[in-house]
Amino acid sequence: MHALLAFGGLPGGMEWILIVLVVLIFFGAKKIPELARGLGKGIREFKDATKEVKKEIEDGEKAVKE
């Protein structure tokens, strides 16, 4: 939280445009969909893993209560 305040908060409109342009320059327009798919896949795997851990904890709690 303190880091956001130190840098003046979240990026605004012009900053986002600059970020998008830099990403386009570094990766190219053809590579961006591939990067987005990889990011989405990673997020999905992370969510699945957290659900699995949560389920294991709940199952462990049920076993202790019995």
From TrEMBL:
The chain crosses the membrane at residues 6-27. It comes from the Bacteria. The keyword Transmembrane applies. It is a single-pass membrane protein. The keyword Protein transport applies. Its main location: membrane. It is found in: Cell membrane. Keywords: Cell membrane, Membrane, Protein transport, Translocation, Transmembrane, Transmembrane helix, Transport. Pfam families: TatA_B_E (PF02416). Belongs to the TatA/E family. Forms a complex with TatC. Part of the twin-arginine translocation (Tat) system that transports large folded proteins containing a characteristic twin-arginine motif in their signal peptide across membranes. TatA could form the protein-conducting channel of the Tat system. This is Sec-independent protein translocase protein TatA.
